[in-house]
Design goal:
With about 70 residues, the protein is mostly helical. Helix content is about 85%, strand content about 0%.
Amino acid sequence: MLPQKLYEALRWILVIVVPAFTLLLTTLTEAWGWDIPLEGIIITIEAIALFLGTIFGISKIQHDKDN
């Protein structure tokens, strides 16, 4: 079981930081014409975030049922 502060920090990263970072990366890549495989990078970041968000959600449901 994760300590509450760690859980909240990770949740904040998944809900706020990851979407903001992908938007920033997309915008900067377009603005500066960077030649990077942006689509693959964004899909990978979002897939990892979705996986972790699902795990956290399931864990929270289980924790709430136990309490």
